Amino acid sequence: MTSLKTQVAKLARGLLTEPIPGAPDAEFTILPERIDEAAAVLGFAADHGLRVLLWGGGTHQGIGYPVTPDVSLGTARLNRVVDWQVADLTIVVEAGVLVADLEAQLEQRGQTAVLPETVPGATVGGVIAAGLSGWRRLRYGPTRDRVLEVVLATGDGRRVRGGGRLVKNVTGYDVPRLAVGSYGALGLVGQACLKLWPLAADRGMVEVSDADTALRSSYRPLAVIETESKGVVYLAGTSAEIEVQARGLGGRLVAGHRWPEPPAGRWELILRVPAGDIGRFVARLRKLEWLFQAAHGVGEIRFAAEEAEPGDLSALRDEAEAAGGALVVTRAPSGSTFDPWGSPPRTFDLQRRVKAAFDPMGIANPGILPGGI
Predict the structure, then answer these.
(1) Is the pLDDT at 52 greater than 70, yes or no?
(2) Distance in angstroms (rounded) separating the CA atoms of residues 89 and 227
(3) Which of 189, 194, 196, 13 is nearest to 96 (CA)?
(4) CA-to-CA distance for 177 and 148, rounded, in angstroms?
(5) Is residue 74 predicted with pLDDT exceeding 90?
(6) SS (H, E, C) 13-49
(7) Mean pLDDT of all residues in the chain?
(8) 139, exposed or middle or buried, with CB in 10 Å at 0-12, 13-18, 19+?
(9) φ and ψ of 84, to 5 deg
């Protein structure tokens, strides 16, 4: 180990740091300043059989099977805006840029990356790796549709660029879509080019009694969110447009947007089902009296509880999987034996081959994916 420590210290050249707060114990903690440095660390780890935990803001680390690392590789120093083409509605950023900081900067020029709105401390790389989308997905589509290019430090130490800095791009393999939702199993998403959207001239929201009916009667709302206490339609456009829609919804128009904070508890989960089945699963959650936020038209429900019976969770998962969906744990009490993923997907063998192509030694977030990939 002494020899290995010496080699790591020489490789890292001052990039070794104290452990990252909240991260699992690791022998080495490294914060690279360039993507090439991250690739070199991953290549070294592959050569020496060291397990590497990839760490952004730590906000999505409860998803998947836990990783017991030898090395923690963080993105805190990969925090630069590389290129911003305001007229072309694209921006290139490094993985460690905070989502909140990026959106605040974009807002000054009337633009948005449409990333998750209410995850304090989340990084761009973490959101991409976790495949998470914000509430505005109903109108603008998921995060994966806005990732035009990625630079990936693979699990075997290569620096791979995929996609291109054009909205219309058909060159090469679709590496960006492989990276979105990969949970670090292919390597470190070090840099990404994102498609941007202009901010609407005016924004407002209307409280409704029936979210499902409101969705059908609204014209391109940003989001229709139902919680255990109310439903809210989020609107954007010109002042005249949102006033007309508010009258049609029969509710009072409130200026601006106030997005709901994610439900919190010892148990936190995401239920993904076909959009048409949302109402049925909302009814199930109401009976269980859990906190929830249902995105109508999208097919996603975030919910939380302080106490949850494994039998209730298993029954809910069985029903979701029967409908073609999934139940994913994002946080669980210490010692929980409830599977974080559920049944492995039908594409399990394909996922395993993709993992092997980018990380043949299996050292990048080893075992985090469904089936322990």
Answers:
(1) yes
(2) 33
(3) 189
(4) 9
(5) yes
(6) CCCECCCCCCCCCCCEEECCCCHHHHHHHHHHHHHHC
(7) 93
(8) middle
(9) -130, 110
pLDDT at 172 over 60: no
Q: With CA atoms as reference, report the closest residue to 184 among 109, 263, 129, 266.
A: 129
Q: Which residue has the higher pLDDT, 120 or 281?
A: 281
Tell me the pLDDT tens digit for each residue of 327-341: 999 999 988 999 999
Structure tokens at 154: 């693979």
> What pLDDT was estimated at residue 169?
55
pLDDT digit string (tens) for 89-127?
Answer: 999 999 999 999 999 999 999 999 999 998 889 999 999
Instruction: Label the pairing between strands 267-272 and 300-305.
Output: antiparallel
Beta carbons within 8 Å of 205's beta carbon, 6+ residues apart: 232, 233, 234, 235, 253, 254, 256, 257, 258
Does the structure show a pLDDT above 80 at 44? yes
Mapped to the 3 state alphabet, what secondary structure does the chain carry? CHHHHHHHHHHHCCCECCCCCCCCCCCEEECCCCHHHHHHHHHHHHHHCCCEEEECCCCCCCCCCCCCCCEEEECCCCCCEEEEECCCCEEEEECCCEHHHHHHHHHCCCEECCCCCCCCCCEHHHHHHHCCCCCCHHHHCCHHHHEEEEEEEECCCCEEEEECCCCCCCCCCCHHHHHCCCCCCCEEEEEEEEECEECCCEEEEEEECCHHHHHHHCCCCCEEEEECCCEEEEEEECHHHHHHHHHHHCCCEEECCCCCCCCCCCEEEEEECCHHHHHHHHHHHHHHCCEEEEECCCCEEEEEECCCCHHHHHHHHHHHHHCCCEEEEEECCCCCCCCCCCCCCCCHHHHHHHHHHHCCCCCECCCCCHHHC
Q: Which amino acid is at 202?
A: D
In the predicted structure, residue 358 carries a pLDDT above the cut 60:
yes
Alpha carbon 173 to its chain centroid, in Å, reads 22
The whole-model pTM stands at 0.93
How far is 171 from 288, CA to CA, in rounded Å?
49
Measured CA to CA, the distance from residue 249 to residue 52 in angstroms comes to 51
